Amino acid sequence: MTRKTSKLSAVLLSVTMLAGLLAGCGSSSKETGNTKEPAANTGNNKDGAVAEDTSPIKFSFFSADPNPNWNNMQDDIGKAITAKTGVTLDAEFAVGDPAQKVALIAASGEYPDLVSAKGDVSKLVDAGAMLDLTDLIDKYAPNIKKLFGDQMNRLRYSNDDKAIYVIPSYSGVDQTSFNAGGGFELQHAVVKELGYPKIRTVKDFENAIKAYKDKHPTIDGKPTIGLTLNADDWHMYISVTNPAFITTGAPDDGEYYIDPKTYQVTYHYRRPEEKEYFRWLNHMNAIGLLDPESFVQKYDQYKAKVATGRVLGLIDQDWDYGDGEKALKAEGKFDRGYGHYPVTLTEEYKDHSFQPTGFMGGYGVGITKSAKDPVRAIKFLDYLASEEGQVLINWGIEGKHYNVENGKRVIPQDVNNRKINDATNFSKESGIGMYTLLSGHYGDGVKDSTGNYYTTNFPEQIVAGFNDVEKETLKAYGATTWKDLFPKEDEFPVKPWGAAWNISVPGDSEVTVLAAKMKDITWKRIPEAILAKPEQFDAIWDAYMKDLDKAGVTKLEQGYGELVKARVELWSGK
Fold this sequence. Notes:
By secondary structure, the chain is α+β, with helices and mostly antiparallel strands. The protein has helices spanning about 75-85, 100-110, 120-125, 135-140, 140-150, 190-195, 200-215, 235-245, 270-285, 300-305, 320-330, 375-385, 385-395, 415-420, 425-430, 460-465, 470-475, 510-530, 535-550, 555-570; strands at about 30, 35-40, 55-65, 85-95, 115, 165-170, 185, 220, 220-225, 225-230, 255-260, 265, 310-315, 340, 365, 405, 410. Helix 5 packs across helix 12, helix 9 runs parallel beside helix 18 and helix 18 packs antiparallel against helix 19. The longest helix has 22 residues, at about 510-530.
């Protein structure tokens, strides 16, 4: 399982606007094999898409990501999408290890109509489950073609197989990030009481936690927790292991460090500087600042612990711990919310969170060979990628979730308050943010034909979403958003391979087999090293490195290096 550290963001439509139906729906049709050819066109809308039949159709859908707020499209946006397209989804979202579920789907020979398998799509490709979408896009998806434009070559699967198996949905096209959701997190109450100290290194972070915890051994009658980690299944990447490269000056390339000049790959834990990061976590455990339950608690327990307000520090992404923080805000405990700081091991390193990747392609939604109507399916995905569809899924329903004032979309204060402070219920009711990953989409900072942003993640709206405590903390650090504290994009070159974590690896390849072995070793040894007595750390680390060598880590690095070079070649168009 691979993933992004922070990225991931959630277009003008009312349910009553039933005229000018877009190409997200099917048509009166005649069967031609397992697809349907549309009948004669009946008109065009402003996106240039053809008005089609909106008769009801239900597609089965599997996603490798969980979605606890899914409301079976009975939210406002879901109903509007169905009204426009006739499509409803019988959706299943991953519970537990999604890789196992995808493997079962691939082996079954019976596939959902639509599937988002993330890094495990290769299993479905190898099984012959996925349709090549190239011709379907060319014939029936004008909005998808417009969206990706000259980036279409980045949708190709590989140099040897130029098919398009998924519509990338985990990367926004022309994305500009205006805020930071990762780094190291400290409660606003902590930094305020300490006079807003400099938070730049792990030692600064540690000192702030220790000073506050010493003064406040309990919060609301319960023991104060200095730092807790989320090590439940794949969350371990986000909270435990990814920070090792982030704090030592490397960008997020999943389990690998890539030399920017030679493209030579190193299994990132083998970088000597990362050993010192894990030594620091070992030190935090030894002095009682690391939650002893970090490696045994389940994800729900982690979020519930955050929601108590007694956890001073986190190392995570806001989308991972967000439910816990939302509960705090719903109770008015804004000082127990978290700020984001670009912490590194020492000041010689620079946080690379915002190193540009270009459009990354990669993870997305595909149509399988079991799909009951591939043409109708691609038109559904095309509708979601249209200007109207994009405004709908990001902004909601005009007059209910936003208004247009002097040509500008504006979110009313009461709606904005609910989005921030009653986020779970609001999401279930409105559907805002629920449909972004279902198709290709524009990134933050891109404007539509009316001059408005497609998404609500732009500077003015982000600032409007901060509560008074957040604004106070940001002002104390001379910042308007959390991103202001981090190194900027223009301080780094664009990575020609994008991000290595979203390179598709054939399921039966030696790289896949070796990577699984390294994961098993790492997930055993890293917790062991962190929880050991400090005098035992070096011996455990040496044993860990020897385990990797014996398991073939060098072959893994060589094999993945070839994949990186192939990605660069594919994207260069050579």
